[in-house]
Design goal:
- The protein is an alpha/beta fold.
- The chain folds into 2 domains: 128 residues, Aspartate Aminotransferase, domain 1 (Alpha-Beta Complex); 252 residues, Type I PLP-dependent aspartate aminotransferase-like (Major domain) (Aspartate Aminotransferase, domain 2), CATH 3.40.640.
- It is 38% helix and 15% strand.
- A 7-stranded mixed beta sheet has the order 2-8-7-6-5-3-4, sandwiched between helices. The protein has a 4-stranded antiparallel beta sheet with strand order 9-10-13-12, with helices on one face.
- Strand 5, helix 6 and strand 6 form a beta-alpha-beta unit.
């Protein structure tokens, strides 16, 4: 069988840089102990790695205080903590139809419980939110706006600078889900007026699964929603209020932190903008090639501008799952099909009625030859209906 063509990087980037694999192995063999819980050398060195990773990520996002960079399992974990830690009885929350279930479901449960009311704003036919729609939706009791920086279905990058300005002027907290953008495009929490940035490690940041986190600006009154050990002031009955402990408890995923550390260092060496430009050139070839195939429909993929390398499409007469299976079995191309945990996106596109779409998502190690093979594969599958 031919070598796997991995076009599911929006789910998890794969493969990782070789330096990530090496560093994780070396670190865990030498420093796989609890950080800072004891005074022996390995524990101290492990704590240094954890803090240095906080600094790396804080610098990547142009934050000020590394202690306000906290770790979690993933973006879903962080979004649950932030949304539930900020929401209060009677609040109004604005979000969009672009969101992943990691945003939709926490907000839904709070809404059903009678704690908050929620508005889901639509995106236009190009896949973008109009900042003016957010401005018009803000009420006296609006507490926060939760926005997906980059759609995991269409790859469209939202105008966070404009949205952030509106939120800051209105005194509304802006929560940005950067699951698909952190590590892919530059992020500056200051110039964007982002109050809370959520990221995951296993996508564009080139880390392993099971690690993610949050950067919280100083003025944000998020409450702790989980409590436990910190290794600091253990006699205190209440959970510690200061950061990073406010959003962390128990032993961290040290192997995940180590992999994330190596992933960010690799990104800094390569240059995020350089990588993005390279992958987007490949995406543009993929986009144009697939759009030239008869009976194929692509979604919100008319331009390379404000886009990540994600392409969703359907072939007339085929279910997305069938196309995905043929790409896998017949061409050894790994992709993702269905609703992509973003049901409102597909509701807006009308693809919810046809079981979603086929998603091809390129990554840092995608090649021109792989793109060519994918175009040929979709061409051959589409031709089946014409036989």
């Amino acid at each position: 069988m031919s070598e796997l063509i991995y076009f599911d990087n929006s789910a998890t980037s794969f493969p990782k840089p070789e330096s990530v694999y090496r560093f994780m192995d070396e670190f865990y063999r030498k420093h796989g102990v609890n950080p800072g819980r004891s005074g022996f050398d390995a524990a101290i060195e492990t704590e240094e790695l954890v803090f240095n990773t906080r600094k790396l990520l804080t610098g990547l996002f142009n934050g000020d205080d590394p202690n306000r960079l906290t770790f979690s399992y993933n973006a879903s974990d962080s979004l649950n903590m932030i949304i539930q830690g900020l929401a209060e009885k009677g609040d109004h929350v604005i979000t969009t139809m672009l969101e992943h279930n990691s945003v939709l479901r926490p907000l839904h449960h709070l809404n059903v419980a009678g704690i908050i009311e929620v508005d889901h704003l639509p995106f236009n036919n190009q896949g973008f939110i109009n900042p003016d729609d957010i401005k018009k939706a803000i009420k006296k009791n609006t507490r926060m706006v939760v926005v997906n920086h980059c759609s995991n279905v269409m790859g469209t990058i939202q105008p966070i600078v404009e949205i952030g300005k509106i939120c800051r002027e209105a005194g509304v907290f802006l929560i940005v889900d950067a699951s698909q953008s952190a590590g892919s495009i530059p992020i500056d929490v200051k110039s964007m007026n982002v109050d809370v940035l959520i990221f995951t490690g296993h996508k564009c940041l080139m880390g392993p699964t099971g690690i993610g986190g949050t950067y919280v600006e100083e003025h944000i009154p998020v409450k702790s929603t989980r409590f436990g050990g910190t290794g600091v002031r253990s006699a205190q009955k209440s959970h510690l209020d200061e950061f990073p402990y406010r959003l962390e408890c128990g032993t961290l995923n040290l192997l995940g932190v180590a992999g994330l550390h190596a992933g960010v260092k690799w990104l800094n060496e390569q240059g995020i903008e350089n990588l993005h430009h390279k992958v987007m050139q490949l995406w543009d070839k993929l986009r144009k090639g697939i759009q030239n195939i008869g009976n194929v429909t692509t979604y919100c993929a008319k331009s390379i501008e404000n886009h990540n390398p994600v392409l969703s499409f359907n072939i007339k007469g085929f279910g997305s799952g069938d196309v995905g299976m043929m790409l896998d079995v017949d061409y050894n191309i790994a992709c993702r099909t269905g609703l992509h945990c973003a049901p409102l996106v597909h509701e807006r596109l009308g693809t919810d009625k046809i079981h979603g779409s086929v998603r091809l998502s390129l990554g840092a190690f995608s090649t021109e030859e792989q793109v060519k093979t994918a175009i040929e594969a979709v061409t051959e599958i589409a031709a089946i209906r014409n036989q």
